[in-house]
Amino acid sequence: MAEDTFDVLVIGGGITGTGIALDAAARGPSVAVAEKDDFAAGTSGRSSRLVFAPGAVRTTAALAVPSAEGDERYIFIVPWEDRVYAGTTDTPYAGDLDHPAPDDADRDYLLAAVAGLFPGVTGRDVVASWAGLRPLLGDPGDARTGDLSRRHAIAPGPFGLYTITGGKLTTYRAMAQDLVDRVAAFLGGGFGSGRCRTRDLPLGLHGPATAAVRQAREEVRRLGLPPRTAARLVQRYGDEWPEAIRLIGADPSLGEPVAVDKEGQPCAVRAA
Ligand SMILES: Cc1cc2nc3c(=O)[nH]c(=O)nc-3n(C[C@H](O)[C@H](O)[C@H](O)COP(=O)(O)OP(=O)(O)OC[C@H]3O[C@@H](n4cnc5c(N)ncnc54)[C@H](O)[C@@H]3O)c2cc1C
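Above are the sequence and the flavin-adenine dinucleotide SMILES. Below is the predicted complex in structure-token form.
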């Protein structure tokens, strides 16, 4: 990459950066992405999640319950496959940006709200937890990050450098379009068609999921894996599911569960 010349260099390979790279590449120019860590390593308010063991929190629908502290915040309780996740918006954070983690206060805060609705649930039912950082637009003095706008902003800099901040996972496509429109206007005629194509560009899986799962089930059976693995691989990797099968075929240990408690395939780690 150091030897080559690119029309567009994107710095940061989270959803914002990869969305911008996709949008720009789809318009024609050559694009490179520079990522300091690993793609999508990050994800500034901190937001924590608790994961409850199968059966510990019995709900089939997503719920929003008030926090037990009466601070007018809500805890979202969301079933996901056979587990349940609980989390809230976010809290201000000034620690290590590379390694945010839930602390005891985060855990107790979420647990109290869940236990309020599902008596008997305790910390022993929590099988995993994680925290991430949201890039939020606001002033350093803003106390409640949950109230801050999720809108994004673009700041032009010198030499055709554009910085985008804020936004959300779900707005990444529109964010990329806004940013790349600005870059295209800056570069003028050297920018391919200049027209954004991502609204019509399919991502993930082309064609019906049922057909892909049926086909994957054959391959999974051939490898001696449980049938439900087929749906998981198609859901996680879309059109790339045959590559996951190929990896497991080349190294059957990748078909073993990552840990006793989790049912994801180790190839999920490698493919990610
Ligand atoms: C727990 C949680 C739940 C969320 N839920 C939702 C939701 O339900 N819906 C929703 O829309 N949004 C949600 N969000 C917000 C959403 O995840 C973030 O807005 C989004 O992921 C931010 O993506 P990003 O690419 O801007 O930043 P990041 O994902 O942080 O990516 C930035 C990347 O840049 C790299 N980088 C940093 N500095 C440099 C450098 N100097 N050089 C090169 N690379 C660099 C980092 O390593 C990182 O990979 C949630 C966030 C969290 C934490």
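The chain is about 30% helix and 20% strand.
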